[in-house]
Amino acid sequence: MNIIHFPKIPFEAKNGILTIGIFDGVHQGHQKLIDKMNELSHTIDASKTVVTFANHPRTFINPDKKVELLSLLEEKIE
Q1: How far apart are CA 37 and CA 31, in angstroms?
Q2: Cα–Cα–Cα angle for 36, 43, 11, rounded to 5 degrees
Q3: pLDDT digits (tens, 9 = 90+) for 24-49
Q4: pTM of the model
Q5: More confident residue, 5 or 45
Q6: What are the b/e assignments for 31-41, b being 16+ CB within 10 Å?
Q7: Does the pLDDT value for residue 12 go beyond 70?
Q8: Which residues are CB-contacts of 4 (< 8 A; sequence separation ≥ 6)?
C-alpha cells in the first residue's frame, strides 16, 4: 500500500479503481466496499486506491463545531 499525502499525488489513474470516503471506524459497510474494490481490481487487473482524510472535511466547512472521530489516521491506515 502506498500512502500519499496531498497535494503530492504521484500516481497515474490509468486502469485504476478509486474510492473516496472518511472511513471513520472502518465498519462492515466500509469493509464490504473495500472487499468489492479488491475483487473488481483482480477481475479487470486494475490498481486500487483508497482516499481518506486526516481531518474530517466538516472541520474545514464549520471550524467552530467540534467533530468527534472514531479512528485516528494511523488506525485507518492499519
Answers
A1: 10
A2: 80
A3: 887 899 889 989 999 999 999 888 88
A4: 0.69
A5: 45
A6: eeebeebeeeb
A7: no
A8: 10, 11
Q: Tell me the CA distances in angstroms from 73 to 48, 55, 62, one per residue in order.
A: 19, 8, 20
With cell 465498519, the residue in question is 27
Q: Is the dihedral of CA 40, 41, 45, 46 positive or negative?
A: positive
Contact status, residue 56 vs residue 22, Cβ threshold 8 Å: yes
Strand pairing report for 47-51 and 16-20:
parallel
Secondary element (H or E) of residue 77: helix 73-77
Contacts of 51 (CB under 8 A, 6+ apart): 18, 19, 20, 21
Task: Decide: 71 and 23 in contact? Cβ < 8 Å.
Answer: yes
* CB-CB contact of 44 with 13 (8 Å): no
